[in-house]
Amino acid sequence: MIQIAQLKKQYKETVVLDVPALEISKGECFGLVGNNGAGKTTLFRIILDLVRATSGQVKINGEDVAQTEAWKSIVGAYLDEHMLLAYLTPDEYFETLRKIYGMSEADLKHHLDRFTELFNDEVLGKKKYIRDLSKGNLKKVGIAAALMGNPEVVMLDEPFENLDPSSQIRLKKLILREIENSKVTFLISSHDLNHVTEICDRIVLLEKGKVIRDLREKAEMMSELEAYFTG
Amino acid sequence: MFFTLIRLQFLKSVRSTSFAKSLITKLVMGFLALLLLTYVLGAGFLLKRILEQFSDGGDLIQILNSYLIYFFLGEFMYRYFIQKLPVVDLESLLHLPIGKKKIIHSLLVRSFFSPLSLIALLLFLPFSLEVVGTEFGWMGIITWLGSILMTSWSLHWIMLWFKQRFEDSLIGLFVVFGVLVLGAGSSYLGWFNLGELMGPVFDLALVNPMPFLALIGFFAGAYYFCFYYYVSNAYLEDLTEEEEVRFANQNIGLFSRFGLPGEMANLEWKLIIRHKKSRTYLMLAGFFLLYGLIFYKNPQYQSETGIHWIFIFVGIFITGIFMLQYSQLFLSWNSGNFDFFLSKRNGVSSLIRGKYLLFMGSSLVCFLLSVPYAFFGWQILLIHICCFFFNIGILMHLIIYFSLWKPKPMDLNKGAMFNYEGVGAAQWLMILPMFVFPYAIYVPFWFLFNEVIGILVLGVLGLAGVLAFKPLSQININRVLSNRYEISSSFRQEL
Q1: Which of the pair, B19 or A120, is modelled with greater confidence?
Q2: Is the separation of the CB atoms in A56 and A8 below 8 Å?
Q3: Is A150 at the interface with chain B, CB within 8 A?
Q4: Which of A22, A139, A192, B7 has the fewest CB atoms found within 10 Å of its own CB?
Q5: What pLDDT is attached to residue B226?
Q6: Alpha-carbon distance B33 to B27, whole Å?
Q7: DSSP helix/strand/coil, A76
């Protein structure tokens, strides 16, 4: 699904990301962990072609992301508020996305129905602009938006951050359901080791831009990660 | 505190990703300000002679006093259009133990150091030394000039409040329009004589310090009025607290025929009506529809063919003012959500096409609204038609091309109060070079043939530009696409 080859990102002298090879296969739930400044967000941004790689390339379905745009219709992402249109209400925002993705109104309703529990009646049907929402609700809007249009790849940066505990659990359930039902490839970065080990079947640990662990065994994940982070 | 704030502001601009652009703007502005101030000073030296021409042997000072009110009305107008409001990163200061009042005081005091505060002084100082001094001595100069300065400077504070409060609303526009009518009504049409209202105050100021002292009081009052308004609004939320979601389903139906770009145009329209800054631009466009009244009837600009060269300027302005101003910040309007467009398929190109669509629409509306000017002659209508086509065919692409050089991020969502500069001189500055283009085309044809041919050539070129819309817009789209990383990272950095 996603191939990364010889990828490097450098700001002047400092190398912030250096990934010789990484392949994420279809339907995988790929977790990305690492301390602050490890390069998680940069990696996501390069995959989304928001940041230029110094060298190397990222391919989604065989397409080089920096060269084409076709991949954008199968990738949904929510990294930060810059991906929202803050001056719309959530309803208007979803409506706009509906038109962009060419979905029918029934599709949209069906899609949003899946989020009823997560939204907890605080998002839809409110006369409130996105810019006035709380951080947690902002995140919920972004996540629901990223999952629109039947994407094959969904990228979420710190999805559990700012969510209240019950929303975190609901989101976890939602992601697990998506993986099971529609074989979506998830890329999730998180500081919450419990959540990420629970939903992901593969976890990559970044340190100073380098992949230092690539864990695939559910049983060992938690202990390995704990050992690393307690240092 | 004052200097710390100035230092912070300085660092912010130096470290900004669009530093080069703002530096150049500032240099040009500084140069222009210097030039204009020199002219003002020159006018100050000539003031005595100008008045002598009018006076028919009357008392120069009295005549000047009776005209001062027009000066202040004029000052109100130019301050409205070019005075910038002070801004500060309130968010990062409010929680510190500095004290709101201190921040606001230094903010206001800083705003006072502006070339605008010098205009009255430079204009009237030579006259007061030359004429007032000889008749009334030093005391006369101090009280008379002092009164004028206090009035002018009080306007500074009043304008700070007025623009902050009303600039994006119809009320503000009505007041400004009212001032215009008041000035014009009393002088040209002779409804009443405004001069008699203010004249006596300044007459008295020559011999009596009372008006001066009273105006000092007024100045201080205006300052505190403005100050308290700012202090009481020094919160992060918007002025109107939680804004009602207005125009909730306000889509412009016509746009939806244009597919994804049309959808983007609708989005952009929502952006415009939901943010104070962009609403101001919209209001201004409405105001400038009246601009033609100053020129088309003016005897100074009459000619045999009914086409004066300045009319092109007016025509371009009237049919394109919104586009001319709004598109200077072409991508900056979307700096808060540029990643959204980047992450959608064809997102950026649709966004740009959508903006194009919106500009064309706004120009069309302005053009249609300006059709009544045909009352002044068919030539005016012809000028407007041709300028309209030139605007949407050629000029639009050019402005956008230039505005894409290091676009500056702009946070529209912060509380409007301290983040809102209003429309200032810089917005006008960028427009001026744009007028080189229509004249570069018009003037040769005017000399070779005549005015009508010149105008028609503008129109035909514009029409050709409209027909070549696809390839022309692609140039700018490609420019954005090839600079997308720089643009998106600069937008992300600075909010």
Answers
A1: A120
A2: yes
A3: no
A4: B7
A5: 92
A6: 10
A7: strand
Number of domains chain A contains: 1
Cα separations in angstroms, B492 against B92, B204, B339, B416: 18, 59, 9, 20
Give B476 or A128, the one with higher predicted confidence: B476
Query: A-chain residues within 8 Å CB-CB of B412?
Result: 87
Tokens of B281: 């631009």
Q: Is A77 a residue whose pLDDT tops 70?
A: yes
CA atoms of B382 and B379, how far apart (whole Å): 5
CB within 8 Å of B17: residues ≥ 6 apart = B406, B408, B409, B490, B493, B494
Give the max Cα distance, chain B.
77
Question: Is-contact B332 B407, C-beta < 8 A?
Answer: yes
CA distances from A127 to A122, B254, B411 (A): 11, 25, 22
Q: Are strands A29-33 and A63-64 parallel, antiparallel or unpaired?
A: unpaired
| Residue at B175: amino acid letter | V
The encoded tokens of residue B174 equal: 């009505």
Q: How far apart are CA B201 and CA B153, in angstroms?
A: 17
**Interface membership of A85 toward B (CB under 8 Å):** yes
Q: Does A169 touch chain B (CB under 8 A)?
A: no
| Structure tokens belonging to residue A225 | 């990660």
- The Cα–Cα gap between B239 and B370 comes to 34
Q: For this complex, say whether ipTM is above 0.90.
A: no
* Domain containing residue A35: CATH number: 3.40.50.300
Query: Measured between beta carbons, which residues in chain B are less than 8 angstroms from residue A87?
Result: 270-271, 274-275, 412-413
CB of A156 closer than 8 Å to CB of A189: yes
Residue B89: the pLDDT is 66
Q: How far is CA A155 from the centre of its chain?
A: 2
Q: How buried is residue B320: exposed, middle or buried, by Cβ count under 10 Å (0-12/13-18/19+)?
A: buried
Q: What is the pLDDT of residues B214-268, one digit of tens each?
A: 999 999 999 999 998 888 877 665 544 444 555 455 667 777 778 888 888 888 8
Mean pLDDT, each 10-residue run in order, chain B (495 residues)? 71 73 82 90 88 78 83 87 77 67 83 88 89 85 91 92 81 81 68 72 86 92 92 64 51 76 87 82 81 76 76 87 86 86 88 91 90 85 91 90 82 64 70 83 85 88 92 91 87 69
pLDDT at A138 over 50: yes
CA distance B205 to B147: 7
Task: Kindly list the distances between the CA atom of residue B13 and the CA atoms of A9, A52, B17, B94, B110, in Å, as whole numbers in the listed order.
Answer: 27, 25, 8, 20, 16
Residue A195 three-state SS: helix
B239 CA to centre of own chain: 22
> And the tokens for A227?
């050992």
**Is residue A84 within 8 Å of residue B337, measured between CB atoms?**
yes
- In our burial notation (b when 16+ CB lie closer than 10 A, e otherwise), range B256-278 reads eebebbbbbbbbbbbbbebbbbb
- The CA distance from B385 to B166, in Å, is 33
Three-state DSSP class for A152? coil
Residue B171, C-beta contacts closer than 8 angstroms, at least 6 positions apart = none
Residue spans of alpha helices (H) in A9-102: 40-47, 90-101
**DSSP per-residue letters across B307-350:** --THHHHHHHHHHHHHHHHHGGGTTGGGGGGHHHHHTSTTHHHH
Q: pTM (2 decimals)?
A: 0.77
Give the best residue of A68, A71, A87, A98 to mutate against chain B (max B CB count within 10 A): A87
User: CA–CA separation, B269 vs A52, rounded Å?
Assistant: 31
CA of A115 vs chain B CAs: smallest distance (Å): 21
